[in-house]
Amino acid sequence: APRDEAWGLVGTTPDGGDGPTLILQGHVDVVPPGDLAAWDGDPFVPRVTGDVVHGRGACDMKAGIAAHLAALAAIRAAGIRLRGRIAVHFVVGEEDGGLGAFGTLQRGHGGDACVIAEPTAGTLITANAGALTFRVTVPGRAAHASSRERGVSAIDAYLPLHQALARLETVRNTDPDPLLAEYPIPYALSVGTVRSGDWASSVPDLLVAEGRLGVRLDEDPAEARRALEECVAEACAADPWLRAHPPAVTWPGGQFAPGRLPAGHPLPGVLRGAWSDTAGGPALRERGATYGSDLRLYAGAGIPTLQFGPGDIQVAHSAAERVSLREVVAVTRALVVGALRVVGTK
Fold this sequence. Notes:
Elements: E1 9-12, E2 21-27, E3 47-49, E4 52-54, H1 58-77, E5 85-91, H2 99-106, E6 113-116, E7 123-128, E8 130-139, H3 154-172, E9 189-196, E10 206-215, H4 221-237, H5 240-244, E11 248-250, E12 255-256, E13 259-260, H6 267-278, E14 285-289, H7 295-300, E15 305-307, E16 322-324, H8 325-343
Parallel strand pairs: 2-5, 2-6, 6-15, 7-14
Antiparallel strand pairs: 1-5, 3-4, 4-16, 7-13, 8-10, 8-11, 8-12, 9-10
């Protein structure tokens, strides 16, 4: 989405001494509601049913923002003196590339560790795959539809490329990282839009396909781009029309690199212990996520980062978006204890 600013909100507790700084981070933007008829009411008017809040952004990620604010309020109300500092970074633009987090970090706001309150469904997410938006422009040759043999349909020309991209997805998902092994397709390659033709009685002379390429953990995005470009080039080499009229591959839109918490970092253990001491029940399981987030920007800035927040990503971006208030409270309690153990108290 076009933007000409990247301001968010940064707040930091007073300097307590020689302790570390923990960042509590979240994004305040949400995706569009989609088909309004799919919603039970106005998607931007929260609807509460028992313990559950329904609405766009309830899960992704207003619940996480609320948990961070409530944790800070609880620490302040208790009069606890901190040895380190707690900072909040509430940013814009996460959903379309992370401009807000990038701008916040570029302005010098940092810390020693970061917890992003993305919905994690009772787990700790310590790694994100990346995602790159690609565009393939396929030429054809126009003709009157009554004599289509004189033309070359850009739609027909695209089909072998579509099949080649499907094969590339299979190859790129061979032997995934253990943190992503539970997912059927850890590094999805999906064509999301296909546009071609401007008249029903004409052979279409142009097709534009746009999609999303998953980037493997620890993979340089440049290598992922090269893999897709080589896939397209190989498919073109095997097709007479495409060999003589090669498509153009470009990379517009969101570009998410992968990222992960350094192996052996103590932050997961701290939050696991805080959850056990406040909520009880099963220990927080560590896993990766197949989608991109601001985690990779903080990790890229040298700030060890993980995701832990209320809600389930499976209902985010849908008309069924919702979050449990009990889960918000449970996460908040764990964040209070975890934050205090990270920054220390006097």
